Amino acid sequence: MKKIIPFLLATAVTACGQSETPSNPADSAANILTVEELAANPERLKELRQQCKTDRPKLGDVLCNRVAEATRKRFYGDGETPYTPPKESPKF
Question: How far apart are CA 26 and CA 45, in angstroms?
Answer without folding.
Answer: 14
